TrEMBL record:
NCBIfam families, per the entry: organ_hyd_perox
Encoding gene per record: osmC
Classification via InterPro entries: KH_dom-like_a/b, OHR, OsmC/Ohr_fam, OsmC/Ohrsf
Name of the protein in question: Osmotically inducible protein OsmC
Superkingdom: Bacteria
Organism: Enterococcus mundtii
Amino acid sequence: MKKMYSTKMINTGGRSGEVHSPDHSFELNIAAPGKRVEDATNPEQLFAAGFSACFNSALDLIKTQKNIDGASTISAQVSLYAESEMSFVLGVEIEGSVEGLSLEETQELLEAAHKVCPYSKAIAGNIEVTLTAVEN
């Protein structure tokens, strides 16, 4: 396997702290989920951002293979669930649309993209993911 890219982020303060790249070109304040803190995000939002972008790129790959030109939009909703007082899990709901395709055609593409998306592969069998085709 050939490494194509690697990145690193550093956190101090956990969910009430900050994250930054080693060269400080990317810095974010972190807040606990559900807390509104100005100019802050949370790990679930970051995961949703990364997953939606990665999934849409995987979908683009599938569309290219099938000669489909319609633009696609992907949303990833990441939820945090408490299994118990000390155990938490994530769940992900992916919604996607592809211009010019029916819901059935789009659903097929979403399922194909889920098989090649690195984020999907990373969490396979670990958390629940639902895929839903939606109108543009």
